[in-house]
Structure formats: C-alpha cells, structure tokens
Amino acid sequence: MITRAAVGIDYDGTIADTNAQKKRWIHEHCGIDIESYQCDRSSCVPIIGHSRYEDMAAAIYDRTWTLRSQPVAGALAALYELNTHYDTFIITARLPNRVAFAREWLEAHECSGLIKDVLTSAGEDKESVCLRLGISVLIDDDPRHLLPITSLSLRPLLLKVGLNSEQQAEITLPAYRSWQEVLEVLTP
Ligand SMILES: [Mg+2]
Questions:
Q1: Which class does domain 6-16+70-186 fall in?
Q2: What residues have CB less than 8 Å from 32, skipping those under 6 apart?
Q3: What's the Rg (C-alpha) of the chain?
C-alpha cells in the first residue's frame, strides 16, 4: 500500500472566509476598517484589543455566522486538487463545540469527502497535532501557529489572500497571497 503525504489546513480565514465577516463586525462594532488578511487573531488583537476580539470570535465562530460564511477564493478547488495528491486534514484552533459547525459547513459545500478529518488543536499546538498525524505541510492564515514550528518535517505555509507583494516580502514565513500560489508549490 502506498502511503500518501498529508497536509494540514486551517479552517477560519483559510478555507471559510470568516475573515470577511470579522471585517464587517469590526466596522460595525468598533468603527474601524481593516483588511480581511488582518483579521487573524495575531494581526487583529493589537488593533481591536483582546476583549473585543473574544466578543467577535464568540459571534463569528457560532453556528449561524459559520454557516453563512463564503469560501475563501480558490479554497474549494484547492481541496479537490490537494485531495488528488495528499491526505488532507483540517486543523483548526476552534474550541471543540465550534468544530461541529465547521464540519457542517464543509458538508454543505460538498467537500467533506475530500477531507480525512477535522480536528481541533485547542489545548495544544498545531505542530503537535500535525506531527502526531504524520502531516508534512501546514497551511494557515495566522502566523502564531506557524512561527513556533521547530520540526524540520513540518513545512509552514502562510496564506493571506489579498496581501500585496510588498507586505508579502516583509513576512519572515513562506507567505502566499492566493490558493493558486499555494498549489503551485504543493502540486506537480
Ligand atoms: Mg485562521
């Protein structure tokens, strides 16, 4: 039996565009306009503060908003493409009770069959989850899950859709601005 390589993919802001919903929430509740790619926790907390970020997360990661979110541009096609080469896992930092909503979203978008499993990293770090599953690539929109990676067998890829090339050059991680760019480095 041939063992396929495995990839881990974040959910919020990487597969489902909950960042667009956060952008809207921040506009309505804080009166600030920020870009979607600034809506991951690492980028967003310094802008709106921890308390407001938690208020926002409680709303956006709940079932109603989760199911309303649109796919990140190119994400669903990327899941199909990656599935032809890799075992694909969703590795989310969502709390366990909110993981079910992500599963429901994936089913509604007819892509749950492309995914081996949807797992939470809550209570540990994503690197540990990936290494336990034999995952060799982790794709995430939040650098806090990628910067601490020390294992040489896990490759971090930061995906921030909408970033411009100057911002991309300033990021110390391997950073990509579209799912197409990610597929170019991961598929033959
Ligand atoms: Mg994310």
A1: alpha beta
A2: 26, 47, 48
A3: 16
What pLDDT is stored for residue 70 in this prediction?
97
Dist. CA 85 → ligand 1 center (Å):
23
How far, in Å, is the centroid of ligand 1 from the Cα of 2?
Answer: 31
- Block means of pLDDT (10 residues each) for the chain, 188 residues, are 88 97 96 94 95 96 97 98 97 96 97 96 97 97 96 97 88 94 93
For the chain, domain boundaries: 6-16+70-186, 18-68
Amino acid at position 64, single letter: T
Q: Are strands 6-9 and 135-140 parallel, antiparallel or unpaired?
A: parallel
Please tell me the predicted confidence (pLDDT) of residue 105.
98
Residue 150 is given by DSSP the state: -
Task: Provide the CA 106 distance to its chain's centre, in angstroms.
Answer: 13
pTM for the predicted model, two decimal places? 0.95
**CA angle (138, 153, 114) in 5-degree steps:** 40
CA of 1 to the centre of ligand 1 (A): 34
Helix (H) or strand (E) holding 18: helix 18-30
CA of 37 relative to ligand 1 center, distance in Å: 10
